[in-house]
Amino acid sequence: MTRYTDYGTALSLLGPRLPPQPKARVFVSYHHQRDQSYYDHFATLFAKSYSIITDTSIERKIGSDNVGYQQQVIREQHIAGSSITAVLCGAETWKRRWVDWEIHMTLNKSHALLGISLPTAAVGAGGAVVVPDRLHHNIQSGYAHFIHWTENPLLLEAAIATARDNARNTRLIQNSMPRMERSRS
User: Fold this and answer.
1) 2-21 tens-digit pLDDT
2) What is the rounded CA–CA span in Å between residue 78 and residue 76?
3) Range with the lowest mean pLDDT among 9-18, 33-42, 61-70?
């Protein structure tokens, strides 16, 4: 039996140490007035596993009424720094133009897209969760992945992995519909 008195020597025999993997950077899109508490809970639950990119939509008074400039700021300061967008789908998320724009810009960058239905999500006549149209088209095409709200980090990790795998098939992206000009409520 070999004994090691020097911890460093023992570690060197195990081979080279791999550098820690960077956290996936997740941009979260949601209806700020209605679903802020879910975003806060999501960010708290998963902050150890993922780098949650704080969306400053509440302060989105960018200092310009120019829609093109506003979209550029979202794209360059939020979406560009992520590898996946998680859309928290609550009761009125499907009505919000900012959410539509964020999904549009995510798809333009060919980033992964994950829809997460919140317990407050609207349910249509057929029992399906009502989500933003652009997200719906990409779930239907197989590009985006969709799950129900979870507080289980392993389930979220699996959903993110699935969304990232789906994003490899960029020909499935459905992003040709016009962007919403106004929120519906």
Assistant:
1) 444 454 554 455 555 555 55
2) 6
3) 9-18
- Segment 49-62, tens digit of pLDDT: 777 665 544 344 55
Helix/strand/coil percentages in the chain, nearest 5: 45, 15, 40
- pTM (predicted TM-score): 0.80
What burial class does residue 21 get, using C-beta atoms within 10 Å of its C-beta: 0-12 exposed, 13-18 middle, 19+ buried? exposed
- CA distance linking residue 40 with residue 37, whole number of Å: 5
Closest by CA position to 100, among listed 125, 137, 126, 64:
137
Q: DSSP letter at 120?
A: T
Whose CA is closest to 99, among 176, 173, 25, 30? 30
Q: Where are the beta strands (DSSP E) in the chain?
A: 24-29, 50-53, 84-89, 112-117, 145-148
In angstroms, the CA 10 to CA 185 distance is 63
